[in-house]
Amino acid sequence: MNQSSSAGEKKAERTTIRQLPLGFYFDAGIRSFHIVARIKNVPGALYDLLGRLQANVDFVNSTSHSLGDGSAIWSGFGKSLLDDESEGRLKELIEWSPFVLECEVKGSDHGLLIDTFHSGLEVAPDRLGIIIPIAGAAQIFDRLAQTYGSAGKAILFQEGSALGKESGQYLKARLGRGDFDWKVEALLAIYRAYGWGSATLEVEDPNARFKVTVRDCFECSEMGKFRKGCDFLRGHLASAISTLSDKEFEGEETKCKLRGDSFCEFLLSRNEPKELNSTS
Ligand SMILES: [Zn+2]
Question: Ligand 1 centroid vs 73 CA: distance in angstroms?
Fold first, then answer.
């Protein structure tokens, strides 16, 4: 559990550092390779593999994951360190490793390499995802607000709520009976990792009232001339937090870049169960 609020503040001030795309690599200036190897999932296997390649390839982006059957996939993009490097020679070098079960090596074409081994992403285990540039999402959001006015904004809020409910259910099933404020922290950490925005939490009243500050919020980072707030994220936050707590939370966006503020701020408050609110 993260006890240090000063560490959290430092994190909030940190310059945003994005991940490189895992699906492709482009460098017109140098011959590069995409290497995929299925290796035995035992300690030392990856160390052995990378050791065999260290004089040949300078890796710029790589990933590895277990297949759950005693083997694991390692996949990496790298720049060639030798002028006359070839796919065949690298494949041979890799296959010498006693830990490697099979491998594929592909050289760049006009500087471009695309990972043709993997098809698609899992944003979390068994939860499939796709990548859409923020500019594309912003255009869809803007067009909804432009065409349908307040109904368009309501759609964004409702779709944010629907997805937030799903995310809340997913997290709840996995995080079990942990402390509720910690689960909200986990939700915000996932927003940051996904690139939805650098979100930080302030607990104003434990289990009942939270202030969430979002720098680099994806929803208002591009365009937005037809919108005045981040309705999708507001819906997602309120709904995910409601689902995580089994209580009903309302979300209000008190600051937003679309209204001239330098960041977005959401207040999440638990509804008092006794009072029925008749205004809609
Ligand atoms: Zn906003």
Answer: 39
Q: Does domain 131-270 have CATH number 3.30.70.360?
A: no
Q: Give the whole-angstrom CA distance, residue 55 versus residue 85.
A: 11
Residue 130 Cα to ligand 1 middle (Å): 23
164-217 confidence digits (pLDDT tens): 999 999 999 998 877 888 999 999 999 999 999 999 999 999 889 999 999 999
| Predicted confidence (pLDDT) per residue in 4-45, tens digit | 444 445 555 667 888 887 789 999 989 999 999 999 999 999
Who contacts 181 (Cβ-Cβ below 8 Å, separation ≥6)?
Answer: 201, 203, 206, 207
What's the CA-to-centroid distance between 261 and ligand 1, angstroms? 9
Query: How much distance in Å is there from the Cα of 233 to the middle of ligand 1?
Result: 8
Distance 117 CA to ligand 1 centre (A): 38
Measured in Å, residue 258 CA sits from the centre of ligand 1 at 6
Residues with C-beta atoms within 5 A of ion ligand 1: 220, 230, 256, 264
Region(s) of the chain under CATH 3.30.1380.20? 131-270
Alpha-helical segments (H) within the chain = 5-13, 45-53, 87-95, 134-148, 150-175, 180-194, 231-245
| CATH no. for 31-119 | 3.30.70.260
Q: State the distance from the centre of ligand 1 to the C-alpha of 253, rounded, in angstroms.
A: 7
Angle between helix axes 45-53 and 87-95 (nearest 10 degrees) is 140
What size, in residues, is the chain? Answer: 280
